[in-house]
Every structure is written in structure tokens, then in C-alpha cells.
User: Fold this.
Amino acid sequence: FEAGVAGDNIRHPGRLLDRKAWKAGHRMKNGLYSVNVRGLDGVDWPPGGVVILRDGVLMGGGPYTYFTGSYSFKDGIFKGEFVLNQHTPAPAGHLFFGAKDVGMGVSGSYGDDQAELTGTALVGKRSTGVRVTLRKLAAA
Assistant:
């Protein structure tokens, strides 16, 4: 995604949107989304998973973890915060496996059916940068 603000416009993948029109109701749609998380600090993250976005609440998980949290939209920016926990023992060697209550905050650009977000995960006393990609799979 190339996201940013240029005067009264918001740059969104492949097009320039009017800021007032965006603020007036452009939102990611409720639904089931695929999730891909990549560490920005060379930290391995688990395979992808899924998340349900529904009216400000998010819930999802993958093969080893689950997460719950909330999200919002303001001025063309998607913001979310959630807590990740392990539900199934995982292979050794991953920073957050075995960690409890891993807090994560993300923000970035979004469209009707996808989002590109960056943020920080707090794993114990360590923080690590993350990139999160959401892609819509089905309507909710």
C-alpha cells in the first residue's frame, strides 16, 4: 500500500480519494479476513491465521495462537489493539511462543477489503516491530 495524506486527499492503492468523502463513511467492511504477520526486527512469527472484524471488535487466531481486541477508524487511518495468547504448544525457537498476554498495537491504511498495518508487539519486557496484512475472505 502507498498510503498518505496530500492536502485534502488521501492516497490509497492506485487512486487518490477525497478526504471529506473518506471521513464521511469509508470503512473496512465487517467480515472474515486472512492475517499475515511479519516481524520487522528479524523475529519469526507463526504462519498466518484469520480474524473476524465486526463493528469495532476483532477476534481471530492461527495454528498456535488466538487474539482478541478492538479497532477503529479516524481520518483515513485504521487503528487496532489486541492481546495474543497461545492455545496449542508450538515448535521451539519463536520469541513469543509460551508468552502470555502479548499486547500488540497497529495502525495504517485500509480499503474496503484489505489493510496494511505496522505496529509494536510487547513480548514480556521486549518490544518488536510488526507488519500486519489483512485481506478479506468473506462477508460477516
Confidence is low (pLDDT under 50) at residues 1-24.
